[in-house]
Amino acid sequence: MSRYIIDLKRQKGAISPEIQGHFAEHLGRCVYEGLYVGQNSDIPNTDGIRDDVASALREMKLPVLRWPGGCFADTYHWRDGVGDPAKRKKIVNYHWGGTVEDNSFGTHEFMRLCELLGCEPYINGNLGSGTVAEMQEWVEYLTFDGVSPMAALRAENGHEAAWKVKYFGVGNENWGCGGSMRPEYYADEYRRYQTYLQNYGGNVLYKIACGACDFDYKWTEVLMERAGRFMNGLSLHYYTRPHERTWDHKGSATAFDDAEWYQTLQNTFKMEELLDRHSAIMDRYDPQKRVGLIVDEWGAWYDVEPGTNPGFLYQQNTMRDALIAGINLNLLAKRCDRVKMANIAQLINVLQAVILTDGARMLRTPTYHVFHMYKEHQGAALLDSFLEPGTAGTGEITVPALHESASLASDGTAHITLCNLDIHASHTVETTLLGGKIASIEGRVLTGAPSGHNTFETPDAVSPQAFTDFKLTAEGFAATLPPCCVVSLRVKV
User: Fold this and answer.
1) Which of 110, 252, 330, 425 has minimal CB crowding within 10 Å?
2) Distance from C-alpha of 470 to C-alpha of 430, rounded to nearest angstrom
3) Exposed e or buried b for every residue in 69-105, given b needs 16+ CB within 10 A?
């Protein structure tokens, strides 16, 4: 039995809704077929955007969406994606499969998508192959509500009023696909580019600098020292892979044994070290925590599904991915003083997607259900909590058996999320709730076989069910978590 203590009176900061953000790149079938089918499609749509997908994402309470990349962002020239779709330039998407990008989904379509989803847009500008003028004019095109060439062009293209755009990324992975830059060089480039990104009218940009690839702490050091005062956020990218020594063989999304299950989850927990060590560097230059840590690419990355285009990064999504999502969302929420946004990669049909589509068919993945179960944490107050997790594993590969986070909503409801990483054993959690007496509890559980996943023939094989395996005690409650599960509890006090 594990001891779990939650203190309702010790609130540790607000959990930014954007911690549960998402990422959509022009990669494989994420945008085209996944989000956008065009207005002439037989698939029901609104302005070309799939109605079924939009409805599911609204239910999930998607708070922010990053676009157009990824590596694609630093090859993307925004003027190619505005104006008459029939006249837009066709380009080669050489990063992702060498396919033809017809630019039918561009700025107007993305902003319309965000309107339909009710989410904040996060636009990633092209620093790698673009120019300062190009990026400056994109911001003006988007947000200037006055007399100017870009405002006139926007009106000519069918949208007279300016949009509100808060989040703007100045380049992507500029240490790699965004230009193979050294941190010192990128820091100077960032300073130069951001100078020309103006706040027009009531629109205030939250400028995000390209941050490190996983364990590159020097990058964070250099960026904070040389450019920290010019940024609002600094990004971080980290992907969970079963086999981290090579990118050639990452492991199967669905075929794995116990050892690979625990190795993958052990690698997921490296996010904790990354968050803490990058934050410690940021603290030296920014003790007031003005600059947010923006984890705008994270998630599981496996070998593509057999028979699919290797450049499309299409993979299935199992209960293992549900646990990866739960662990990461707990870790991110617990560091809400520094982490202000995170964007899982990617939204649809790519990597750790929340939705998969096949023509007119659509399914919600186990990862989707975890985000849906965790949505009550958005904007809530992080509660001080302590858990004795125990251990699970095989041989030398061990992980905490349990993982958690807890928050308090504005109406006084406590929301608790618990993960059982043990694939063979149930675990009972004896919970003490300090600062209040429980009036009622209701819960949901997502569980199944470790490799359990949804298919288009059985789209609800892995889906949340009512959770009732708990009882009230004098100090709180005791709950027994089944193997391989994610549980969310709503506690009224």
Assistant:
1) 425
2) 10
3) bbbbbbbbebbebbbebeebeebebebbeebebebbb
pLDDT mean across residues, the chain: 97
Tell me how crowded residue 65 is: count the other CB atoms within 10 A of its CB.
23
The C-alpha atoms of residue 400 and residue 266 are separated, in whole angstroms, by 9
pLDDT on residue 247: 75
Tell whether omega for the bond before 346 is within 30 degrees of 0, i.e. cis.
Answer: yes
pTM of the model: 0.97
Verify whether residue 297 is a known catalytic residue: yes
How does residue 295 score in pLDDT terms, banded at 50, 70 and 90? very high
Three-state SS string across the chain, please? CEEEEEEEEEEEEECCHHHHEEECCCCCCCCECCCECCCCCCCCEECCEEHHHHHHHHHHCCCEEEECCCHHHHHCCHHHHCCCHHHCCCEEECCCCCEEECCCCCHHHHHHHHHHHCCEEEEEECCCCCCHHHHHHHHHHHHCCCCCHHHHHHHHCCCCCCCCCCEEEECCCCCCCCCCCCHHHHHHHHHHHHHCCCCCCCCCCEEEEEEEECCCHHHHHHHHHHHHHHCCEEEEEEEECCCCCCCCCCCCCCCCCHHHHHHHHHHHCHHHHHHHHHHHHHHHHCCCCCCEEEEEEEEECCCCCCCCCHHHCCCCCEHHHHHHHHHHHHHHHCCCCCEEEEEEECCECCCCCCEEEECCEEEECHHHHHHHHHHHHCCCEEEEEEECCCEEEECCEEEECEEEEEEECCCCCEEEEEEECCCCCCEEEEEEEECCCCCEEEEEEEECCCCCECCCCCCCCCCCEEECCEEECCCEEEEEECCCEEEEEEEEC
Catalytic residue among 18, 137, 189, 297: 297
- Which of the residues 109, 120, 140, 173 is marked catalytic? 173
Per-residue pLDDT of 82-102, as tens digits, reads 999 999 999 999 888 889 999
Of 327, 229, 221, the closest CA to residue 280 belongs to 221
Per-residue pLDDT band for 492 (boundaries 50, 70, 90) equals: very high
Is 260 one of the annotated active-site residues of the chain? no
Per residue in 348-404, pLDDT (tens digit) is 999 999 999 999 999 999 999 999 999 999 999 999 999 999 999 998 899 999 999
Residue 249 pLDDT class (50, 70, 90 cuts) = confident
